[in-house]
Amino acid sequence: QKLETRGGRILALVPAHNAPSDDSEPSDIEDEIRVHAPLSMSSSSAPSIESSLERLNLLNDEQEPTNDNVRLTPIFQTVYSSPSLEPNCNKVPILSDIPSFPATPASPVTPATPTNSATASVLARSASLGLETPRMPANASSTLLFSRRTRSQRPAISVAQRPRRIQKFTLSYRWKKAVFRHLATMEEESDPIGDATIQTPLEYFYKFFSPDILTHILEQSNAYAVSKTGRTLGLTEDELRDFIAIHIIMGVVSMPSYTDYWSLRYRYKLVADLMPLKRYQQIRRYLHFVDNNIEDSDRYYKIRPLVQKIRENCLFQENERRFSIDEMMIPYKGTKAGKRRQYMKDKPNKWGFKNYVRAGVSGMIYDFILYGGEDTFRFHTFSEQEASIGFGAQVVIALCKTIKSKPAFVFCDNFFSCPELFYILREEYGIFGLGTIRNNRLRGAEASLPSEKEMKKKPRGSHAQATCNKNRLAVGLTKYQRSENGIKGTKKRVPQVSPVETSRYDNVGHFMTMTTQGRCRLCSKLTVVQCLKCQVRLCFVTGKNSRNCQLQYHVPT
């Protein structure tokens, strides 16, 4: 049979146990000892494989193929209880034909593609041995990889590109010593705070700390307590108000430790009578402002909902027309803030959280931005021009975007000021800017201004101006002195006590005593001798420069 013939030929290729190779000669000695031959420079002849390859050609068979049934395994015989008598060589049952097995679609398998060199060697060897050459697909040349010709034609690997560097916004300046021609006038405000009346401190507090903030804190604190202990905190709105009131009182009346407000020795009734210590500690332990299950890369995500609600209340207030933008420190000396805690040596509160604030003439805060490093402007967007003029200028623009009533005036210090900032504020937002500016940001205006040496020779209050009417900008230079170096008045003499002449010359009880060093009443030299009765310092020195002012003072001339 055809199948048995093929199987026999395949088994014939397997050499017998301890059979010699085709090119080895038979040994006459049965018990031959194998000796390792020394290494030689020439290699041995390769074994002959032509006979094996000829026997491997299973397709060249002179016998006619027969279509006998293939024996089925016991599993298939169980499934197919009444097998068909027709030949099943081309219809061998598979697992998917069994009704009990779910049919799964066969995934296409892509055969491994050999390299060009390996394919060429196999084809050449098959042709030399007279084997049938397997048919290659029409696009075989396109599927061959790793060739020098196709290596340069591979698609380029897409790599994440770096963010495009923003070109810095610059202006062309023409500074001149001329009069500024682009003046603007604005009506004066009658009431800087607006149309509001004077309210109680509690009403002002609820303007910024609205009731919805209290509701949010209640929900998050109770939920956090449940996640940690499995029981609710039971925090009510009245208890939360008392808790906030205690912290406000603690900010006014300071003690070394918060437990001192409840201690027997330092008990403070306004705090101790408002809430028990254990309840205060429990609320303090589980006070929360955000859901911890929400992942966020924000540096202030623990308090971000609270901050956003307070900022919305600030934006809701009626704005003024004149604002000041500067840094403000929120005091904090703890160690749990990481890099969020900043240090500023020129501030009254040197340690804390840096906060950029826009405030009005009345002192009301209308907008603010918490400093968070690169994450400061998480909720703000800028144009390409605004993003290229520096961090300080971006702070001013972000705070000025929320100004409701325009035109308006904005004042800032030299950390924020630059000519490009004031140009954008006036042209894009209709806001006039004024601020001190650093020498390295004058953009060429220093050429039209007198030097520092020349300004020192001028009196106090002297000023100069350089204008750029093209961009509607002006830079002024003013001389000012923190302290005057004028003529100082003579030192006022303190009147000294003089004894009565009758007591001075009575020669009774004028004893000398030692006292602190001071000036002698007669010669004005330093001495430590004093008359006990007259209470006057007088010299009594012996030696080379001896002098006796004690005697001269008590003897009339």
UniProtKB/TrEMBL annotation:
Residues 1-32 are annotated as: Disordered. It comes from Spodoptera exigua (Beet armyworm). It holds the Pfam family DDE_Tnp_1_7. Residues 200-474 form the PiggyBac transposable element-derived protein domain. Residues 22-31 have a biased composition (Acidic residues). This is PiggyBac transposable element-derived protein domain-containing protein.
